Amino acid sequence: KRHGIQYRTINGESASVDPATVDEWKKRLVVMIDKYNPNDIYNADETGLFFKALPNLSLVTAKDSCKGGKRSKERFTVLLCTNMTGTDKLKPLMIDKSANPRCFKN
Q1: Which of 28, 42, 50, 64 would bridge with 60, disulfide CB 3.0–4.6 Å?
Q2: Left, alpha or beta for 105 (phi > 0: left; psi -120 to 50: alpha)?
Q3: Under DSSP, is residue 99 helix (H, G, I), strand (E, B) or coil?
Q4: In whole angstroms, how far apart are CA 40 and each of 5, 83, 88, 91?
Q5: How far is CA 33 from CA 23, 24, 29, 86, in A?
Q6: How far is CA 22 from the centre of its chain?
Q7: Average pLDDT of span 17-40
Q8: What own/partner pairs with CB < 8 Å and gap ≥ 24 does 47-56 have?
């Protein structure tokens, strides 16, 4: 704490994006969506839901040993969608794993 050093997890790919490109697209996007009603602009994104996962960290005393097991990789993919004003929030769509995925059909 004295030196301002913190233990954090590195995540995301924010360093791989050129800031000039982001600024250019911010300007373009305003012009593109200006002709639409904000209630008609939707955003959707998916996220993984690990429903059997255990926490990464645990609090133990110095005498106790802290052993972990194999992590569960069972998950659902959840699709979330809402409009720009937040007045129309669609029901989350849950996707489980398929026994016979269509992508391997032919």
Answers
A1: 64
A2: alpha
A3: coil
A4: 45, 7, 10, 17
A5: 16, 15, 6, 16
A6: 20
A7: 91
A8: 47/77, 47/78, 47/80, 48/75, 48/76, 48/77, 48/78, 49/75, 49/76, 49/77, 49/78, 49/94, 50/74, 50/75, 51/75, 51/76
Which pair of structure tokens corresponds to residue 93? 């769509």
Q: 33 and 41 in contact (C-beta within 8 Å)?
A: yes
CA distances (Å), origin 19, targets 3, 14, 22 = 30, 10, 5
User: In terms of Cα–Cα distance, which of 80, 73, 72, 74 is closest to 47?
Assistant: 80
pLDDT of residue 43: 94
Give the C-alpha separation, 21 to 85, whole Å. 26
**Amino acid symbol at 40:** D
